[in-house]
Amino acid sequence: MKIKRLFFVGVVLAFCLLTASSAWGHKVHVFAWVEEGTVHTESYFSDGNKVVNAQIQVFDNYGKLIMSGKTDKKGIFAFKLPACTALRIVLNASEGHNAEFDLAVDQVD
């Protein structure tokens, strides 16, 4: 009886580990930086694949939506730096994958 219980616990543990690793492999990331008055964003999955044609929303430091667009075939979205002190960039990719990046633009030279 004890061997059956240990076997069952082992199977459940293996299942949990396998499903957790596959979920981690599909995590999405968005990164942003400012260069010469332009905000550049790059979006990618944990496996390195680019996030293509995904919705990007840009909010100001008061939470107001100031622009939106879509990533290109390289996972890039760029826009002119708006006049505000901070931005929150939200990526809405396929199948419910979401990521956010906070950019403090008041520290940009």
**What is the percentage of strand-forming residues?**
35-45%
Number of helices: 1
Q: What order do the helices and strands follow?
A: HEEEEEEE
CATH class, anyone?
Mainly Beta
Describe the largest sheet. 4 strands, antiparallel
Helix percent band: 10-25%
The name CATH uses for the topology is Immunoglobulin-like
| Structural Rg | 20 Å
Mean pLDDT over the full residue set: 83
* DSSP strand count: 7
Helix/sheet category:
alpha+beta
- Side by side, the strands of the main sheet go 4-3-6-7
**Number of domains in the coordinates?**
1
CATH 2nd-level architecture: Sandwich
The unreliable regions are 20-24
In whole angstroms, how far apart are the ends? Answer: 69 Å
What is the assigned CATH homologous superfamily? Macroglobulin (MG2) domain
Shape, per Cα inertia axes: elongated
